[in-house]
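Predict the assembly for these two chains.
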Amino acid sequence: MTGRFFSSTWNPLLRPFAGAPAAGGESAAGQPRSRSLARAVAHKMIVFVALLLIVSQMVVFLAIDRAVSANTLTSIRKELAVGERIFHRVLKERSEQLITAARVLTSDFAFRQAIATADQATMTSALNNHGSRIGADKMVLVSPDGHVMAAAGSLDNILLHGLANNFADLVADAAQSGTASAIRLCGGEPCQVVVVPVLAPAPIGWVVLGFGIDAPLAAELGALTALDVSFATWRRTSGWELAASTLQGAQFERLRRSLGKTLPTVVLAELAAETAEEHVTSPAALTIGNDHAVLAVLQRSMTEALARFASLRAILLGLAALSLGATIIGSLIIARSISRPVTALVEFAQRLEAGQYDQGPPAGGSDELGQLANAFNNMRLAISAREQQIKAMAYHDSLTGLPNRALFNDRLHQAIGVAKRLNHPVSVMLIDLNRFKEVNDTLGHHVGDMLLREVAVRLRGVLARASDTAARLGGDEFAVLLPTAGSSVAEDMAQRLRRALMQPVVIEDRQLDVEGSIGVATFPRHGQDPNVLMSHADAAMYFAKRKRLPCAVYEPSHEAEMDGSESLAMASELRRAVEHDELLLHYQPRLDLRSGEALHAEAMVRWQHPQRGFLSPSEFIPFAERTDCIHQVTRWVVENAFAQVSRWRKEGFPVKLSVNLSVRDLLASDLTNYLRQALREHSVSARWFTLEITESAIMDDPEHTLDTVKQLKSMGFALSLDDFGSGYSSLAMIKKLPVSEIKIDQSFVAKMDSDKGDLAIVRSVIDLAHNMNLEVVAEGVESEQALELLQELQCDHAQGYHIGMPQSASQFEQWIRQRPAPAVPRRISA
Amino acid sequence: MLRIAGTLCAGLLLATAVSAGELRAQVSAGGRPLADAVVVASAEAPPATTQAGTKTSTIIIDQVNKEFIPYVLPVEAGTSVNFPNRDNIRHHVYSFSPAKQFELPLYIGDPAAPVLFDKPGVVVLGCNIHDWMIAYVYVSDSPYYARTGADGTATLPTLPAGRYTVRVWHPRLDGSEAATAKQLAVPAQGTVETAWEITLKPDFRIPRAPIPGQGGY
C-alpha cells in the first residue's frame, strides 16, 4: 500500500499542470521557433524581391554599360579619326612652316654670302648659326651637284658620309619643285627633313635641315589632337625603338612590347587590328623603306574615355543600391505586417500548448487573420472548458466526489510547504474500512459503493475546517489531511471520525456496521517528507488494524513490524526459515468440556528468528498470507504436525491436532493431493486432524473453496470454522459448509463475563451450532469464570491461556502427563 | 635687246675692216627656239690684239620695274658695266660669282662707278632686296660672241676668216658649256650657219613678290 502512494502513476492529462517546468521548457524552445517561422516568411519574400530587383538592375546596368562602352568605342574611333586628320595636317603645316623658315634662313644675304664666298669652316659656322636660329637639329649644305659641302648640328661622321645618299632623292626632289620635305631617320632619330635651295639668286647649293621628332613635338601633337602620340622607328639593323611618346610608364612599355621584332608593314597591320582594352590605336607610316621606317602611333585611351562614364555608372549603381535598400525595407515592412499577427497567433497557440487559457488571441482585424484569431479564441474557450472537466475528473473521485489521491498528494505537499515556513504541524490520517471486502462480496458492489458514498458524507460532515481535506485514495481507503493539526488534535479528530462511522448505515433496508482502522502521522514529528509521512500513517493504520484498535498514532515500532522495505527481506528470511527449520510448532491444548480430556491441541507455528527472537504467527503470518510464502509455511506446518502426531501415536498418545489453513492454501489447486500424499508418507489418518479455516477464507471465492472443503471432508479431515463472528458469514453459508465445529472468535469470549452482548452472542452461537449439529470451540479463555460460564452454556471445547499456553511438543507431553485425571467431575459439580 | 645693238655694231664694224665672214647660230631647246643663249666663237689662232683698249664703258644693265634688263648680257673680259637704277626704290645689286664678286649697296639712280668684269666666266647678278631679280653677265675671253634673240638665232657678223671653236651657253644649260664646243671654219666672205639643240635644267627662278610695290622678302 505504502509503495503505491507516490508511485507517480500520473495521469498524462495532468502533465501541463503538474509538470509545469517541463511544459515551460518546451514553450521556451517553441517561442523562437515561431518567430523564426515568421521571419523565414519575411526572409523568403525579401530574398525573392531583392533577387528580382538585383537581376533587373543588373540587366539594365549591363545594357547601359554595354551601350556606353559601344558608344565610347565609336566616339573614340571618331576622335581618333579626327585626331589623325589633325595630326597629319599639323605635320604638313609644320613642314611648310619649316620650309618657310628655312627659306627665310637661306635668303639671308650674309648667309648666302658666307656660303658663296667663304671657306668650309665659315660655311659650317654659318650653317650652324643660321640653322640654330630656326631650331634645326641637323644642317647639311649640299652642292648643286650633290656633294656635301658642310654639315652642322648633331651629326656624327658616319652620318655625314651617308648623308648624300640619304638625302639625294630629297635634293633631287627639291631641284625639281624648289623645296622638299620628308620624315627621315637620321642616325636612328626620326627627323622632319626639309631641303631648300641657297639662291644667289641662282641655286648655289641646297640646305638640308633636320628637325628632330622628339618628346616636345609628341606632347604638342598630343595636346592638339587629344590623343596619345608616339613615334616609333625601325632599322633593319637595330629593330624597333620608341623615339618619343606621350605615353608613360606601363602604357609606354606595353606599346614598346607590341612593336615586337616584326617588319614595319606587319606592325602596322597588327597595331591597327589591335583591340586593346585600354587603347584604340591608329598607326601611320611616316616613312617606310627597305631598311628603316618611322611610324606614328596615335592612341586614344579607353579608360580615360570611360572615366567620363564612371560618374554615370556610379549614379546608376547608387540608384540601384537605393532602390534595393528601399525594396528590402518595404518588403520587411510588408512581411512584418503579415508575419507579426502570424507570430502573435503562433505565440498564442504556444500559450495554449503550455496550458495558459486566460489570455485570448491578439485582436485581429476583419481579414483572414482576424477570422483565424476568432477561431482560435473559440477553440481556447472550448479547450478551457473541457480541461476544467478533465481537471475535476482527474482530481476527484467520481464515486464519492471526494478529492482523489493526486489532489490529496498535491495538498499534502502544499500543506507541508506552508508548515515548514510557518513552523506548525500537519497531520494525516489514513482510514481503512474493516471487512469492506466482505460487504462487497456478499451484498454486491452497488451496496459497497453506497457504503463508500455514505462514508464520504460522514467524513465531510466531521471535518469542520475548509482547509481540512478528506480524500478517497482508492478502494476502501480514505485519507484526511489536517493542515494545522498536531497529533493530539488529530487523535481527537480520529475519535470523532470513528464515532461518526460507527453510526449504523442503512442500505436497502440492511443495517451495516462500519468500522475503520485509523492511522495518524504528524509532520514534523513523524516525518519531514510527504511520502514518509504517508507511509508512517499507513504503518500506524495497519498497526491499529492488527491490534483491532480504532486508532493509532504512529510510533517507530509500528514500522519495525510492517515496513515496506522490510517485507521483501522478510519474504526471503521466511523462505530461509522454512529451509533451515527456524520455524517450530507449539501446541495449545484444547479442553473437552464434556469429558475433561485434553487430547486435542492446536498446532501453532512460531519463528525462532536469529535476530528478533520468537515471533508469534500474528507477526509474520499476515505477511506470509499476502505473499506465496504461506504455501511453504503451511506445508512445513503440515509436515511437522503430521510427523508429530505419528510420533505421539507410536508412543501411545492418542492426540488430535488442529492445523490452520489460509485462504491461499484453499485456493491452491494441489492442496488435496498434497495432503493425501503427506498422510501416506507419515502413515497418519486424516481423522486425527482438524483443519481450521476462517470465514473470510471462504468468502473470497466461495465456489472454489467450497469444493475444496468438501473434498477435504471426504478425505476424513474434520473441518473447523475459525474466528467465527468476526466476519460477515451468513448462516446460509455455514449450512452449506461441511464443517463439524465452529470456533467462536476470542474477542467475544474474552469480554464475555463483563459484556452482556458478548455473552448473548456466545450463547446464541453455541445454541445455533448445537441446533445445526455442530460442536463449538471457545477461544481466548483466560479465566476460570469464563471457563465456568462456557461450561454453563454447554460449550463443547475451550481453548486459552487459562487452560494451557501454546508450548513445545515435549512441554505439551509433560503437561498432559502432569494433568490430573479428567475433570469431568468438575463439570458435574458445576 | 635692241638697246645693245649699237655696241655690237661698233665691234662688228671694226672687224669688217679686214676680210670677214658671218656666223649664224640657231639655238633651240626641246625643238623650240631658245632666247638668251650666248654663242661664243674662239679663234684657234689668237687674233692680233689691235682691239685692246678700245672698249668703252657705255654698257649698262638697267633695273626697271624690279627686273634686271637685259637678263643675259655677254661682255668681253675687261668690260665695265654700269647698273643704273630706273626704279624709284633702292636696289642692292650683288654677285657672289667667282668671276666677279661685287656689291652695290642700296642706291638710287646711277651708282658711283661701273663694275669692271675683267675675268671670263659667268657672273650671276642678284638684288638683295628683290630675290626674284636675276641677271647673268657672261664675261667672254673672246671678242666674238652674240646672244640669241627670241627666234633663237645669234649672228656673229664679222668674223675674220679662220677656224673657230664655237660654244653655246645658257643660264639653264644642262651640262657644261665646253661640251657644246664645235669646230667651225669661217670663210672670208659669206655666212656659216650652225645649230644647237640643248637640254635645259628646270627653270629655278623665284617668283616675284605677290604684291608689287611692297618689296620682296
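The longest strand of chain B covers residues 20-29. Chain B has a mean pLDDT of 81.
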